[in-house]
Design a protein that fits this description.
- The complex is a heterodimer of chains A (182) and B (457).
- Helices cover 52% and strands 11% of the residues of chain A.
- Chain A has helices at 2-10, 27-39, 54-59, 67-92, 105-131, 160-172; strands at 19-24, 46-48, 152-157, 177-181.
- Chain A has a four-stranded antiparallel beta sheet with strand order 2-3-1-4, covered by helices on one side.
- Chain A is elongated.
- Chain B has helices at 24-32, 40-66, 80-105, 115-136, 162-195, 199-209, 216-249, 261-287, 296-326, 330-341, 345-357, 365-368, 371-397, 413-436, 442-448.
- Chain B has one domain: Formate dehydrogenase/DMSO reductase domain (Formate dehydrogenase/DMSO reductase fold, Up-down Bundle), CATH 1.20.1630.10.
- In chain B, α3 packs antiparallel against α4 (115-136), α8 runs antiparallel to α13 and α10 (330-341) packs across α11.
- The chains are: A alpha+beta (182), B mainly alpha (457).
């Protein structure tokens, strides 16, 4: 019963997609197809692959990830928060221990530094998940398990009228397989 | 179809493992074949592990119910085996982040085949280490007092104490290294998810993979973040064990009060951690027949890291003795003389032999490439590094400034149970890990294979 429920949860009915999915084995063929498809005005395509390929990243004109800014803000908040915690905790009960300075910079630096790393790390994780649209609960394109093995998929969302032209273009760039979802 | 052996990963050196073709698909097959219902050997090991752990839990129960009187330590040797275990396991934990983060930043390709095991070891090592200070407080139900939290009396933790720095450092390390480990697993768990037949396993991998599809926008932010995880974890590796060393160095106790401690502890942590990675890898690559993935070249590079850190640790030992002899403190001189020739001379010489003398055999290539020799040496290294922490803690505390306080500590059966139990706790996690999660990074190893191209470049 529970197993059936889990199975049903993990295998929902496939959503209806509109577009064309091409599948490649050779990286250079897939790269050429990306360039041609983008040249034909299909800028909103997605590429699926078992590993990232620099050639395809260049063809997609992908800039650097914005996650670094999220991490930097997290790091700044962490170090500020760490020092603030030290100041506040000492000021709220100013007790001299072992004859040491109340507001002593070296111990505060240790705590500020560790807080910076902690909050920057957590921000980095949240940034990656948010920008990478993870966790992905809803399929955005038809998925093929071969994309985790050795095949590259290019998904072009389009109307039924454009599908035939895209299919031709993909076949012209040596796609192993083309699936039309109209 | 393009195929290659993973000797391509090893840029130099000779690979004497028989060539076995590795393709992108066969890599998935090889790594994911480990994720299966365990056999008899695994169950026998796991049950034995649980029995040992049960004995250790009985010892912990004794400690909590009857108090610390059942252990062997008395004033002034209050840290004794608990903190020895804590520092030992934090040290073990260090290697994982070194291999995964530091070597990632340096673009050292050999790390790809070994880093997942090292990262798992890090997470389980910190989980083991964190138990000891928690138990050592004597009243673990009040451990939450260690954390700064708003309370009615505005009474905060003492941020000027190195013990409080440890709370921040170890917890940050546990959090960041766990995140780093889990993030690296995302693409591989997606591959495992696609093959899983049983709904429960499929559910586990679906959760660990976050619905990963390998889309270009996912890879872009994955590696964007991964670089920063590595950049954040690298200084963390060095800072955490430095902070642990300051638990000692900030005190004026003879044998502890030294600026050498931070680099000395970091080198020692890497030394013991790499020793443990070698121990685990020798067994796993043999047990699962993965000699073509983790080649002898990889093992030799790890052995070189052991040799390097052994030299650093040996240099630190000699520096400590030199400074004691050359410096002005009679108490310092006395403690170091006592370490080598006094009541605990046997512990000192076990430490020195295992950490400095035996690893010198790694200067020979034939030893570095012999798996039996590496297995034996890795065990010696870990015995030696446990004794290093024992020697530092016990010999200094047993012989502080006032001779009236001198006390010879003897380890009790309860503490022995805790030591053995810590290994059982660590290996319990590890045994489950190798059977449930991909123990080698499919995605990263795949990147080292030549990609299939129609046109030759």
């Amino acid at each position: 019963m529970i197993l059936k429920m889990i199975d049903g949860l993990l295998n929902p009915p496939a959503p209806k997609f509109h577009g064309v999915m091409g599948i490649w084995y050779y990286v250079d063929d897939a790269t050429d197809a990306v360039t041609a498809l983008r040249g034909a005005g299909h800028k909103n395509l997605n590429v699926f692959s078992p590993v990232p390929h620099h050639e395809i990243e260049h063809a997609m004109e992908q800039g650097p990830s914005l996650v670094r800014w999220v991490t930097a803000v997290g790091g700044f908040l962490g170090v500020t928060g760490g020092f603030a915690l030290c100041f506040y905790s000492i000021a709220s009960w100013p007790l001299v221990i072992g004859g040491k300075e109340l507001f002593s910079v070296p111990p505060m630096t240790v705590l500020g530094y560790e807080s910076m790393i902690l909050i920057a790390g957590l921000s980095n994780l949240l940034g990656m998940l948010a920008l990478g649209r993870l966790p992905q609960l809803k399929q955005v394109a038809p998925y093929d398990p071969r994309f985790q093995e050795d095949r590259i998929g290019i998904w072009v969302p389009c109307s039924a009228a454009e599908a035939a032209k895209i299919e031709q273009l993909m076949k012209g760039h040596a796609a192993e397989e083309v699936q039309v979802h109209a | 179809m393009s195929s290659t052996t993973l000797k391509n990963i090893a840029v130099d050196g000779v690979n004497d493992v028989p060539d076995r073709p590795v393709t992108q698909k066969s890599l998935n097959d090889d790594v994911l074949s480990m994720v299966a219902w365990p056999g008899k050997v695994w169950w026998a090991l796991f049950l034995f592990d649980l029995v040992v752990l049960a004995v250790a839990l009985a010892a912990v129960r004794n400690l909590i119910v009857h108090g610390w009187g059942v252990s062997g330590f008395m004033r002034p040797v209050m840290w004794a085996v608990d903190i020895t275990n804590f520092v030992f396991w934090v040290g073990i934990a260090h290697c994982g982040t070194l291999v995964s983060a530091v070597l990632f930043l340096f673009r050292s390709h050999f790390r790809r085949a070994v880093y997942r095991i090292a990262e798992a070891m890090t997470v389980f090592g910190v989980l083991t280490a964190a138990m000891f200070p928690a138990i050592h407080t004597g009243r673990p139900w009040f451990d939450y007092w260690l954390f700064p939290y708003p309370n009615q009396r505005q009474l905060w933790t003492n941020i000027r104490s190195p013990l409080e720095w440890d709370v921040f450092a170890v917890n940050t390390y546990l959090t960041v290294s766990s995140i780093f480990f889990l993030v690296g697993l995302i693409p591989d768990c997606a591959a495992a998810r696609d093959r899983a037949k049983h709904p429960i396993l499929k559910l586990i991998y679906t959760i660990f993979s976050f619905g990963w599809t390998g889309a270009n926008y996912q890879w872009k932010h994955f590696y964007g973040a991964y670089l920063f995880f590595a950049a954040l974890a690298t200084p963390l590796v060095f800072s955490v064990h430095s902070v642990v060393s300051w638990d000692f160095a900030m005190a004026q106790t003879p044998g502890w009060h030294s600026t050498l401690f931070a680099p000395y502890f970091v080198a020692g942590a890497i030394f013991s951690g790499v020793g443990m990675v070698i121990f685990l890898l020798v067994i796993i690559r043999k047990g699962f027949g993965l000699q073509h993935l983790v080649t002898i070249d990889h093992m030799e590079k790890l052995a070189k890291l052991v040799l390097l850190t052994s030299c650093m640790v040996g240099y630190s030992y000699l520096t400590e003795f030199f400074m004691a002899w050359y410096g002005p403190s009679a108490a310092e001189r006395d403690v170091f003389w006592f370490r080598a020739t006094g009541h605990y001379w046997w512990a000192f010489w076990i430490m020195f032999s295992c950490n400095v003398i035996f690893p010198m055999s790694l200067w020979f290539k034939s030893v570095r490439r012999n798996m039996t020799a590496l297995l034996v040496l890795s065990i010696f290294v870990n015995i030696g590094m446990w004794f290093e922490r024992f020697v530092i803690i016990v010999t200094s505390l047993t012989r502080t400034f006032n001779p009236a306080n001198w006390f010879y500590y003897r380890i009790s059966i309860t503490e022995l149970a805790l030591i053995v139990g810590s290994f059982a706790w660590f290996f319990m996690f590890f045994l489950v890990f190798v059977r449930v999660l991909p123990a080698f990074s499919i995605a990263e190893i795949k990147e080292t294979l030549p990609m299939p191209k129609r046109r030759a470049h």
